[in-house]
UniProtKB/TrEMBL annotation:
Protein name: Uncharacterized protein
Any one GO molecular-function label of the UniProt entry: lipase activity
GO BP field: lipid catabolic process
Organism: Mesorhabditis spiculigera
Gene3D superfamilies: alpha/beta hydrolase (3.40.50.1820)
InterPro entries, per the entry: AB_hydrolase_fold (IPR029058), Lipase_EstA/Esterase_EstB (IPR002918)
Pfam families xrefs: Lipase_2
Length: 144
């Protein structure tokens, strides 16, 4: 469930991303250097609304239990990865004019807590909408 709606004049209206994609898209919007690759200038001024659905914005708690490649400390989903620390250290929202997160208290993929933060919370967002009960995939299906 990735979507990007674009207005005729080229202004990005809504970026809507989930789970792993959320962090990649946040990085693309932020721009700059990522692991020696220049991603371009920031796109913040082009994005009106960014919504993260069950995104591993602070990482995935699974990384604390399993040595998976996706949990690497460079650009992976470990809450201690260089890229996540870089994305989450910003004092101001950069994903767009408005940003929101949709999370669940029963997320079996992203998990609950990552380095002292709710794993799926989005730093500096306008609001967080929390479902109580449904799992990760159920939340994705509910908002699709």
């Amino acid at each position: 469930m990735q979507s990007m709606n674009i207005r005729d004049r080229g202004r990005l209206i809504l970026w809507f991303f989930r789970w792993v994609c959320s962090n990649y898209e946040r990085g693309y919007i932020l721009g700059g250097d990522c692991n020696g690759i220049y991603l371009g200038k920031p796109l913040t001024h082009l994005v009106d609304t960014f919504v993260s659905v069950a995104g591993a914005n602070y990482g995935s708690a699974i990384c604390e239990m399993l040595p998976l490649a996706i949990c690497n400390l460079n650009n992976g989903l470990s809450c201690r990865s260089h890229r996540l620390r870089e994305l989450n250290s910003r004092k101001h929202r950069y994903e767009g004019k408005y940003s929101f997160s949709i999370t669940t208290t029963n997320d079996e993929k992203v998990g609950g807590w990552c380095c002292g933060h709710k794993c799926a919370s989005l730093p500096n967002n306008e609001a967080e909408f929390v479902y109580h009960g449904p799992g990760h995939d159920e939340v994705l299906y509910m908002v699709n």
